[in-house]
Amino acid sequence: MPVKLHYQIYGEGKPLYLLHGLFGSNRNWFNIARQLAPTLQVIAVDLRNHGDSGHAVSMSYPEMAEDLKELAASLGHTSFDLLGHSLGGKTAMAFALLYPSLLDKLIVVDISPVRYDSTHDELISVMRSVPVGTLTNRDQAGEFMASRIPDPMLRQFLLQNLVRDGSAYKWRINLDGILKNYSRLREFPDELTGMRFNGPSLFLAGARSDYVQPEHHLIITGLFPQAQIKTVENAAHWVHADQPEAVVREVHDFLER
What is the radius of gyration, based on Cα positions, of the chain? Predict the structure, then answer.
């Protein structure tokens, strides 16, 4: 059953939907969205179990693609472009394969349609262990997490999901739902094997990231025959945060062709 998605709209013009990665929200794309907005209508979306969107027990890529289809229909969009990063990139790929008639161009940032090893179990475990009911400020949560997540930037990224609920704090992200579905989120759906999206596709990979490997290129072009695969220098997995100007330039160039 589709989940109602929260979103923010910037600018006017042809619609471009932006989908964030795991543990993120539409706010991660605020700066990029504002830079793209002068020539596009940018719709930055919270995926299910993230941000201010609805929660659900199930969380497969086809289900998240259907969520987006329902949102686009509610906004009257029958033809649009789509950009997704990481978890959002896999969702965007699933959408392109399942609903190609709705999509003009696809942009995928630092992810491939393959299975990945588990890298987020510890983060989920740490977040679930934070005693949110006893917190009086967000800094206390950061101190609690510091011994197991020493990277301060990563902690701050995760702490964006900790919000005040009356006099207490809570995680707005559905940690239990994500944990339950994490094994399938690491995969790319078998049921999409053999499908094709024949529209223009751009895959942007961070040069300092290992998410898009040379051996993935044939898999990508098998599903997306028109795919261009480009590397963004001096960028790790969060390509849009490391090199925002380069991402904006690549997106503009690709969509204007």
Answer: 18
Can you give the three-state secondary structure of 40-55, one letter per residue?
EEEEEECCCCCCCCCC
CATH number of 7-116+186-256: 3.40.50.1820
Burial class (CB in 10 A: 0-12, 13-18, 19+), 118: exposed
- Which residues are the active-site residues? 86, 176, 237
What pTM did the predictor assign?
Answer: 0.97
How does pLDDT run across 17-68, given as a tens digit for each residue? Answer: 999 999 999 999 999 999 999 999 999 999 999 999 999 999 999 999 999 9
Listed by start position, the domains of the chain span 7-116+186-256, 121-179
C-beta of residue 195 within 8 angstroms of C-beta of residue 223: yes
- Tell me if residue 183 falls in helix, strand or coil: helix
Q: How many CB atoms lie within 10 A of CB 122?
A: 11
166-195 tens-digit pLDDT: 888 999 999 999 999 999 999 999 999 899
Bridge partners of residue 206, in order along the sequence: 232
